[in-house]
């Protein structure tokens, strides 16, 4: 099989197809595009997600916290705690492992999230460090948001810039190579994007402002996330590619490596849908909180199309992330 996410058809039939719904307390379970499970705890809902970090080396401890908590925020829920499974190869030093955990602890503290436990192991079954994170959050029942909650006619809004996470990963892990091609300013811009990886602030804000659906943009980039949003909601979508913001540092790095910024891993970006009458208030509120956001399209009844230079192109399901072509 190809590196990256399992193909949607196989995931639906062979993976999720073997999962049975046997507990009434589980309100949201395994599903295409749904990043979180939701459990009914009577007075509140418990929101749970799990995510591995497999494509990064630098700042892996910090990324592990932010990526998992981003999933929780995509349900409009407040992240409370995380548990980490850390698998490192035998070549890992004590100093590297300690630095990794210091970074994780710092990221958790910045989100007011507790590292509650986990497992740490040195193993020769991996050739680079892998961290798998389980995140737990809470949400009021009436405020629950799902990836599959979009409605036809809703406006599609994204925060920040396409390719954000992939840009900063490549800027750090390929810094020496890129320093001969990028200006110092662009390289620094790309490296500093590591501070923009969290979508918890916009997720919590948007959850209070009446968005119908949210989905954080990870593997497969913005195009993958838009397809997953439409698939989870069983709707069509129409997006103008020229409206999708891309930073100059991302454009330069993607040109150098010959990859597509729109299909590059983009943790730090949230896509959300909202009724047209509410979209102006959403954009203004995000701006007041120093969160860049852009209207990029709308949800439709059927077709999933991207408008590229005046031509309507079918939006296809995500394949292997562009990052894997480089790392």
Which labels suit this protein?
327 residues, alpha+beta, 60s Ribosomal Protein L30, Chain: A, Phosphoribosyl-aminoimidazole Synthetase, Chain A, domain 2, six-stranded mixed beta sheet, PurM-like_C_dom, Hydrogenase expression/formation protein HypE, PurM-like_C_sf, PurM-like_N_sf
User: Which bin fits the share of residues in helices?
Assistant: 25-40%
Quick check: average pLDDT? Answer: 91
What's the alpha carbon Rg, rounded to whole Å? 19 Å
Give the C-level CATH assignment of the largest domain: Alpha Beta
Largest sheet, in brief, is:
7 strands, mixed
Strand adjacency order, main sheet: 8-10-7-11-9-12-13
Instruction: State the end-to-end distance.
Output: 17 Å
Q: What is the helix tally?
A: 11
Can you tell me the residue ranges where pLDDT is under 50 for at least 5 consecutive residues?
none
**Number of folding domains?**
2
CATH architecture of the largest domain: Alpha-Beta Complex
Shape: globular
Query: So, the CATH homologous superfamily of the largest domain?
Result: PurM-like C-terminal domain
The percentage of residues in β strands lies in 25-35%
Class of secondary structure makeup: alpha+beta
Would you report the number of β strands? 13
CATH fold category name of the largest domain: Phosphoribosyl-aminoimidazole Synthetase, Chain A, domain 2
Oligomer: single chain
Order of helices and strands: HEEEHEHEEEHHHHEHEHEHEEEH
């Amino acid at each position: 099989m190809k590196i990256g996410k399992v193909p949607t058809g196989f995931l639906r039939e062979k993976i999720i197809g073997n999962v049975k719904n046997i507990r009434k307390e589980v309100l949201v379970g395994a599903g295409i595009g749904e990043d979180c499970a939701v459990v009914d705890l009577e007075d509140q809902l418990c929101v749970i997600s799990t995510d591995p970090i497999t494509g990064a080396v630098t700042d892996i401890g910090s990324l592990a916290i932010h990526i998992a908590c981003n999933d929780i925020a995509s349900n409009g829920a407040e992240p409370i705690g995380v548990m980490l499974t850390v698998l490192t190869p035998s070549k890992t030093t004590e100093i590297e492992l300690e630095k990794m955990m210091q970074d994780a602890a710092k990221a958790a503290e910045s989100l007011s999230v507790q590292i509650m436990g986990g497992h740490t192991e040195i193993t020769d079954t991996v050739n680079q460090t892998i961290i798998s994170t389980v995140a737990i959050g809470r949400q009021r029942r009436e405020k629950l948001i799902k990836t599959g909650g979009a409605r036809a006619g809703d406006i599609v809004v994204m925060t920040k810039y396409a390719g954000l996470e992939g840009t900063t990963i490549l800027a750090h892990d390929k810094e020496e190579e890129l320093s001969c091609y990028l200006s110092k300013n662009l390289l620094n811009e790309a490296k500093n994007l590591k501070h923009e990886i969290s979508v918890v602030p916009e997720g919590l804000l948007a959850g209070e402002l009446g968005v119908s659906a949210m989905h954080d943009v990870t593997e497969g980039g913005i195009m993958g996330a838009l397809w997953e949003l439409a698939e989870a909601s069983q709707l069509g979508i129409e997006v103008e590619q020229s409206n999708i913001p891309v930073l100059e540092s991302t454009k330069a790095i993607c040109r150098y490596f010959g990859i597509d910024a729109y299909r590059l891993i983009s943790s730090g970006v949230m896509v959300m849908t909202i009724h047209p009458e509410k979209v102006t208030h959403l954009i203004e509120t995000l701006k007041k909180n120093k969160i860049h956001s852009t209207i990029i399209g709308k949800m439709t009844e059927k077709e999933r199309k991207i408008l590229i230079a005046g031509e309507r192109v079918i939006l296809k399901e995500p394949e292997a992330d562009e990052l894997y072509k480089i790392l």
